[in-house]
Amino acid sequence: MIVIEKGNQITIDANVTIQRFGSDTNSEKENETQSKEDLIPKKIEPVQRIRTKAKLNLETQAEKMKAKSSDKYPNVKVGQNVRLKVPDIDKAKTDPKIIIAVVIDVKDNEFYQLGTSIGVLKQLYTQNQFTSCSKDFIKIDEVVKEKEVSLREAVGKLSLTGGQVFKKCNCLKKCLSKNCACKSSGLLCNSKCHNSTPCCNK
Length: 202
Description:
Layout: E1 3-6, E2 9-12, E3 16-19, H1 23-72, E4 81-85, E5 98-107, E6 111-115, E7 120-125, E8 130-132, E9 148-149, H2 151-158, H3 181-184
Parallel strand pairs: 7-9
Antiparallel strand pairs: 1-2, 2-3, 4-5, 4-8, 5-6, 6-7
């Protein structure tokens, strides 16, 4: 009888081969699994270092941008008047491009609450959205604090033509009575009203 051992196989004679299953195979698998588990922390550590460094770089860049913005746009005090630019979408072509507002409150040292003679604007503004005035045109006492309005509503109230929507009348009696659509709305007649007939509401 000839017995030959080769790896996990035992060969008896030339025609008989026995596969050996034992603790060696299990131990090899356990060692392989353990080695893979040991590699996981080694791969995670550099990723975590890169993420931490990236976070610190972003925070540093944000601080630099904030400091640069503070230098470019000086702080505005409560009670100071500012010029607020009106976006094209919130006004008609004949409406003013800017409105005068007054700072009534500052939140978190960077968000400003503005008020107008129409009411308090709903949105909070930052320093780069307005410019300060050298003189005061509106006082805080003149602001209607009980009423909140949007910028579009404020521009519409200050507009001579009613804001984005043009109103016109077809009066034939010089627009003297409240039957005139423009006069009843508190607006002046414009070039689209009553062709070339005389008018007293201009």
